[in-house]
Amino acid sequence: MGPVNTGDRPQVVAHRGASAQYAENTRAAFLHAIAEGADAVEVDVHLSADRQLVCAHNFTVDKTSDGSGEIAEMSLNALRALDVHSWKNPELPEGYGSSAQQLITLPELLDIVIGADRGVDIALEMKHPSAFGHELDDAVLDLLTTRGWDPKDSSIRDTSSGEAITVTLMSFSPAALEHVLVRFPQLPPRHLCALFQRGQMEALYLVDDGRVGVAGPSQAYVRHHRWKVRRWLRHGIELNVWTVDEPEDVRYVVEVGARRITTNRPGAVRRLLESAEFSGAGTL
Length: 284
Hints:
Layout: E1 11-15, H1 27-35, E2 40-47, E3 53-55, H2 76-80, H3 106-114, E4 121-126, H4 134-146, E5 155-157, E6 164-171, H5 174-183, E7 192-196, H6 204-208, E8 214-217, H7 219-224, H8 226-234, E9 238-241, H9 247-256, E10 260-263, H10 266-273
Parallel strand pairs: 1-2, 1-10, 2-4, 4-6, 6-7, 7-8, 8-9, 9-10
Antiparallel strand pairs: 2-3, 5-6
Pfam family, one: GDPD
Organism: Candidatus Nesterenkonia stercoripullorum
GO molecular function: phosphoric diester hydrolase activity
């Protein structure tokens, strides 16, 4: 099993959900991404002080809530007491949950994705450096295992519908990705993504030696290292570029050969990719 089949067009991955419209990594952002047609949702995961897997990008809550402090030093109940959405969009449409429901855990996000009325994959970033080290990675892997995750194809199957989603495990930390492979050596490389940007390229060697099958560079890295990208593609490495919001940038990364486009605006990017400009072609 592989990612959601999108035919010739690249997969649209909603960066922290539909984070152009709603606060990143919130229930509303993920639900809106699915409603807009995202093929996959991307999520960042931390451990709280009481070892709960929390969906959040930053290591502190200072910029994305009405509180302050390190996520690793706060309990889940303390985190849930914060307003994590009004800084971006105080309005929450019916069906997107209450203000108190916007901070969600990874188990809750899995429920949303698995329960969607169509196939939606998940790209899961383990946030490092974590105060808990590999305990974060183990917590993610243990949760996936309890949910029926099959490491042979990185799928989780909905027992009621029979539908399956594909999980891509990602990190900027090569040690985290290597830890995953130690625990699950049977996991195919195409379900591991090494993230990096200019000046933050420690995970490159995992891509170059084929242990990781998806390269996750920033746009800036791609623009300055076209030769490297061409080499990856020649060797069967898949390209997942972030964060791509503007039409001209979408055109560029498609031309380069990206098969996964991570964006804050999944609806707009999908509409562009399905427009006559791209119809019937994987590249410009």
